[in-house]
Write a structure and sequence with these properties.
seven-stranded mixed sheet; about 20% helix
Length: about 375
């Protein structure tokens, strides 16, 4: 007989804090949330955080007023992360600790892993990159390079964070200047295996950090194929043994500046690829200008929270006989737990799900650290 103490409300309220504790990326970026119920596929208009510029006061001419213009981006609620389970272990749980072990904690961890991974996929929108593809960042110089890139892009100094894959995190946690308690002034690196705040950034580890695989299989002597006008957002390239295609997230370096491919290109034809769409807009570029293709890499990220947005909305309570659900929200995170009945197999089923979407808002406020 099912334990009547264990209700959907109990499950949801136990699960949400555990989900929040396991989230990394959504907790580090701009969040947009309301109590309005929505469905998968809905599009939400999200107001972009306002960016203002500070300047020295000019006593002779007075102040220069800035127009505060609230812009917006559209974010599609295109992710519905769900964990579904049959009820045998759940309904035979004798207390909440037992339920945490068999369902709540594993489900919350699985949802968090999915959400983190989806958010960290936004690396593909970021053109700025430092480091060497295929080489794990492991030294203070790698942290300094990320800091410099953020500084050059005039990223605000407050709130900067970085998310590293397990390999980079392990390497940084062994740097003597970080783990030496006498030098760092804290034993946290030794006790927790965390490098904490270094070079003006809070550092985190996530297994969801993505590995980017370029679509180009072989290429040498890559060049711009045809002159490019200033302001253009696409170009053509050619080269020796150029095969495959460029994929979203590939980085092209031209004239010392990086450009990210915004969507998959057509496959190479006769060692050339036409109509490659890139960001940011291109300057005037001469025909046959050199192009460097950044190789496949791990896409660690250093960024300001305003670079990205995490958008979530509560889900509807589903209708239907024999279906019950409970929705709970806290601090911009919403979770639904549903109980249904599978008539075919004569058994109860439980579902825990989250509706959300991600959007890159200001790509200039982030940098990829290649690994």
């Amino acid at each position: 007989m099912a334990n009547t103490f264990i209700t959907l409300k109990t499950i949801a309220r136990e699960a949400l804090p555990r989900l929040i504790d396991n989230l990394v990326f959504p907790n580090l970026v701009h969040r947009d949330y309301s109590e309005d119920f929505h469905d998968l596929g809905d599009t939400i208009r999200v107001r972009k955080p306002v960016i203002l510029t500070a300047s020295d006061f000019d006593a002779a001419n007075g102040v220069n007023y800035q127009d505060i213009q609230e812009d917006a981006v559209e974010v599609k609620l295109d992710h519905l992360a769900t964990v579904d389970a049959t009820a045998s272990a759940i309904e035979t749980a004798v207390n909440i600790d037992d339920l945490n072990r068999v369902f709540i904690e594993p489900a919350a961890a699985a949802l968090a892993e999915k959400i983190n991974g989806d958010g960290l996929s936004l690396y593909a929108d970021i053109p700025t990159a430092v480091g060497t593809a295929g080489t794990t960042p492991s030294a203070l110089s790698d942290l300094a390079a990320a800091r410099r890139a953020l500084n050059v892009n005039k990223v605000p100094g407050f709130g900067r964070v970085a998310v590293w894959d397990p390999e980079a995190d392990t390497a940084f946690a062994q740097i003597p200047a970080i783990v030496n308690a006498e030098k760092s002034g804290s034993c946290e690196a030794l006790r927790e295996g965390s490098i904490g705040r270094v070079f003006g950034m809070e550092h985190y580890m996530s297994q969801g950090v993505k590995k980017h695989a370029t679509g180009i299989t072989a290429a040498t002597a890559v060049k711009v194929n045809g002159a490019v006008s200033a302001g253009a957002t696409q170009l053509s390239i050619d080269g020796t043994s150029l095969t495959g295609k460029l994929v979203k997230g590939d980085i092209l370096t031209i004239g010392g500046k990086n450009y990210v491919v915004t969507e998959d290109s057509a496959s190479a034809t006769s060692n050339a690829i036409a109509g490659v769409k890139v960001y940011p807009a291109l300057p005037q570029i001469a025909d046959n200008a050199d192009v460097t293709l950044v190789a496949s890499h791990t896409a660690n990220l250093a960024f300001h929270p305003m670079a990205f947005a995490y958008v979530t909305r509560p889900l509807h309570n589903p209708d239907g006989e024999g279906v019950a659900s409970y929705v709970t929200s806290f601090n911009g995170i919403s979770l639904r737990v549903t109980k249904g009945y599978d008539q075919k197999y004569k058994r109860s089923v439980y579902s825990m799900d989250v509706l959300y979407g991600f959007k890159t808002v200001y790509p200039e406020l982030a940098v990829r650290v290649l690994g």
